[in-house]
Specification:
about 0% strand, 1 helix
């Protein structure tokens, strides 16, 4: 059971990290285009 929870947490953390990095990259691109 603990292994399943760890895998679930790892998957959730990886997904959140991916979306966060993608959001930061998109935000930097948007800020860079502003005058």
């Amino acid at each position: 059971m603990e292994l399943g929870v760890l895998i679930l947490l790892a998957a959730a953390a990886g997904a959140l990290g991916w979306f966060w990095m993608d959001g930061v990259a998109s935000g930097e691109r948007r800020m860079g285009h502003r005058p």
